[in-house]
Amino acid sequence: MWEFRSMNFWRAVFAEFFGTMFFVFFGMGAALRWTTGPHHVLHVALCFGLAAATLIQSIGHISGGHINPAVTFAYLVGSQMSLFRAIFYIVAQCLGAVAGAAVLYGVTPGNMRGNMAMNTLQPGISLGMGTTVEVFLTMQLVICIFAVTDERRNGRLGSAALSIGFSCCNRSILLSFAPAVLFRNFINHWVYWVGPMIGGAMGALLYDFMLFPRMRGLSERLATLKGSRPPESETQQDTRGEPIELKTQAL
User: Fold this and answer.
1) Other CB atoms closer than 10 Å to residue 45's CB: what's the count?
2) Of 188, 208, 190, which is closest to residue 198 (Cα–Cα)?
3) Which CATH code, of 3.40.50.2000, 1.20.1080.10, 1.10.600.10, 1.20.1260.10, is assigned to 2-226?
4) Where would you find the membrane-spanning parts of this chain (predicted)?
5) What is the pLDDT along the chain (251 residues), one digit of tens a residue?
6) In b/e form, how buried is each residue of 177-213, taking b as 16+ CB within 10 angstroms?
7) For 9, phi and psi rounded to 5 degrees?
8) Do 233 and 240 touch, CB atoms closer than 8 A?
């Protein structure tokens, strides 16, 4: 398989590890209570959004800057990347998230760690309600990503990285996964995987087949999923133009 032998592929996988590690470190760090004063949700959301925008801008031309398994899964469902690449991206993202959370755990005083901002269902919220919320929020995120990075779009306005960052806020499976691994607490953890994955798939299908259909045949889609041929940009040693990756533009 050409991807396994491509240095650009391994750079992209490492970029996903690197980007996710820092995203989780800064995002979870912002969610911790460092003072005894009021905890402003807006401050946490801004930190998540700006961290995501910065990292997407930094590694978007290398890997696409997914930093979220649900986004990678959405691109797979939309036949915009190979299954091989998607698996390696998701593994790298999970490892990066755990690394970022572990570093944050190590540099945070014990009396401030709490549960490391681990996502849990609040009292009165059922499993179905929590899953539905994750589905809708992730679907909105994926549609935003697909729309602002679509190479067929004419006259882009503003920054794609900022648009994605402020749509993202703290919507990432890994912000639930990383602290769950550290504390070995996986109670109802499936909600934060199943919901985003369903939402990501729905967003990809909605955008690619209804809102702005991609006129590609079944054979072309299968070729992309199998990774049977490299994109033109790979042969030109220019990963920025790869159609299988989430693309960004300058701030």
Assistant:
1) 17
2) 190
3) 1.20.1080.10
4) 12-34, 40-62, 83-105, 125-148, 190-212
5) 678 888 999 999 999 999 999 999 998 998 888 777 777 788 888 888 899 999 999 999 999 999 999 999 999 999 999 999 999 999 999 999 999 999 999 999 988 888 888 888 989 999 999 999 999 999 999 999 999 888 887 766 677 888 887 777 656 788 899 999 999 999 999 999 999 999 999 999 999 999 999 888 888 888 888 887 655 445 444 433 444 445 444 33
6) bbbbbbeeeeeebebbbbbbbbbbbbbbbebbeeeee
7) -65, -45
8) yes
Q: How far is CA 144 from CA 37, 71, 80, in A?
A: 35, 11, 16
Radius of gyration over every alpha carbon of the chain, rounded to an integer in angstroms? 18
**DSSP codes joined into one string, 24-78:** HHHHHHHHS--SSS---HHHHHHHHHHHHHHHHHHHTTTT----SHHHHHHHHHT
Q: What is the residue-wise DSSP string for 186-221? A: -TTTTHHHHHHHHHHHHHHHHIIIIIS-----HHHH
d(CA 56, CA 54): 6
